[in-house]
Amino acid sequence: MIEEKLNEVTTARGLIIAAVTIFDEAIDHLINKVFRKTDFVVESVIESLFEHSGPLFDFKIRLKVLLGLGVISKEIFEDINAFIKLKEIINNQEQEASFSDPMFLKFIQQLHCIKESLFIKDPIPDPKATDSLLEQVKIIRWEKMIRSYLILSILHINEALQIESPL
């Protein structure tokens, strides 16, 4: 289902926004597993923390709580934060982001879930050099590889969030 959502998205901005949304939903589900109890007293106190005005309503705060409790690893925490920062950068840009933008290569290289896999050895094609058909094909190939790496990293992080409560 998540793969289908990600495959429907065609833009770089859309993919990053979809990733952060997926992580937000997974974190919310994990928080529910960890904190939501059926005991009335516990439930009434916990509910107030997660309401719109509660201190644990913010996605970044919930992420830090899960890290602090040892529910998620430092690597997953850092990777999700990297996606959040990239989303903020992309949303502040006037132009539509492209997968051939060098910032995506830098972004992927900093992800922990990608470091252990093989990575792209081809040089980054010059997006301005679209005068030849060969250059256009290289750019399209590069963008597909970057998109694939991003989707794989999103799936890896989401899978890491699909755990049972250790508490």
Number of separate domains: 1
Report Rg.
Answer: 19 Å
Distance between the termini: 28 Å
Number of strands: 0
The overall pLDDT, averaged over residues, is 81
Query: Tell me about the biggest sheet?
Result: none
At the fourth CATH level, what is the homologous superfamily? Nucleotidyltransferases  domain 2
- Beta-strand residue percentage: under 5%
What share of the residues lie within helices?
55-70%
String of helices and strands? HHHHHHHH
Number of distinct helices:
8
CATH class: Mainly Alpha
The protein's oligomeric status is single chain
What structural class do the secondary elements suggest?
Answer: mainly alpha
CATH overall fold name: Four Helix Bundle (Hemerythrin (Met), subunit A)
What best-fitting shape do the alpha-carbon axes yield?
elongated
Runs in which pLDDT lies below 50 for 5 or more consecutive residues are none
CATH architecture: Up-down Bundle
Organism: Gallibacterium salpingitidis
Pfam family, one: MtlR
Protein name: Mannitol repressor protein
InterPro entries: MtlR-like (IPR007761), MtlR-like_sf (IPR038026)
Sum up the structure in keywords.
167 residues, mainly alpha, Four Helix Bundle (Hemerythrin (Met), subunit A), 0% strand, elongated
Walk me through what this model shows.
Pfam families: MtlR. This is Mannitol repressor protein. With 167 residues, the protein is an all-alpha fold. The protein has one domain (2-161): Four Helix Bundle (Hemerythrin (Met), subunit A). Helix content is 68%, strand content 0%. The protein has 8 helices and no strands. The longest helix has 29 residues, at 133-161. The chain is elongated. The mean pLDDT is 81.
